[in-house]
Amino acid sequence: MTIFEGPDGRPRCRWAGGAPEFVPYHDAEWGFPVADDRRLFEKLCLEGFQSGLSWRTILNKRENFRAAFHGFDHEAVARFGERDVDRLLADSGIIRHRGKIEAVINNARALSDLVAREGSLAAYVWRFEPAPQDLPAPQSVSTSVASTAMSKDLKKRGWRFVGPTTVYAFMQAMGLVNDHVEGCCIRAEAEAARAAFKRPG
Predict the structure, then answer these.
(1) pLDDT tens per residue, range 93-107
(2) What is the DSSP string of the chain?
(3) Phi, psi at residue 157, to the nearest 5°?
(4) pLDDT higher than 60, residue 42
């Protein structure tokens, strides 16, 4: 059974039934294309924090993460030092994991270099959008050829906590693939948004 019937009686991806806060996230965000660098960076960071944890934990702390990391302004985060790491390790509103916190700061610095070379994070990530014929069935895999390629390239550029599974979850959420299952009431909306979306370049 891949479908969950929401409180309004409409069919959705089964995972949307996992928690009440999942329904608005599923309906308004997940799978809709994003070209905003700050939102893309935020999602890459939050997917890294999710590693080994549930998305519900991260989603419920998302506003705390935004406050702690200056709205995921990568230029501001790139200037964080040891004192900021100590501050974040003492912040009970986020996940207090030194490696993940330091990875966000490291990746903010790496992003500055990526933007200088590629123009924007959006232009970079959308180059990895898979061709329609290369797409597996929705929600049938946790990695893909495209996510593995992006992961490998980001690691080569010095990024951390960007394994193929983390990158695939990022691609699902940011609309690089439409992984809403067949029969989900949001699948057509996400597809229409992808069709109308102007790919950054």
Answers:
(1) 999 999 999 999 999
(2) --EEE-TTS-EEEGGGGGSTTHHHHHHHTTT-----HHHHHHHHHHHHHHTTS-HHHHHHTHHHHHHHTGGG-HHHHHT--HHHHHHHHT-TTS---HHHHHHHHHHHHHHHHHHHHHS-HHHHHHTTPPPGGGPPSTTS-S--HHHHHHHHHHHHTT--S--HHHHHHHHHHTTSS--PPTT-TTHHHHHHHHHH-----
(3) -85, 5
(4) yes
Active site residue 15: no
Q: 59-102, pLDDT tens digit by residue?
A: 999 999 999 999 999 999 999 999 999 999 999 999 999 999 99
Tell me, yes or no, if 47 is annotated catalytic. Answer: yes
Prediction pTM value: 0.96
The catalytically annotated residue of 15, 29, 42, 47 is 47
Catalytic option among 15, 25, 129, 191: 25
pLDDT digits (tens, 9 = 90+) for 127-178: 999 998 889 999 999 999 999 999 999 999 999 999 999 999 999 999 999 9
Task: Report pLDDT for 19.
Answer: 95
What per-residue confidence (pLDDT) applies to 201?
80
Which tokens hold the place of 174? 């940011």
C-alpha separations of 106 from 102, 158, 160 in Å: 6, 8, 8
User: Has 25 been annotated as catalytic?
Assistant: yes
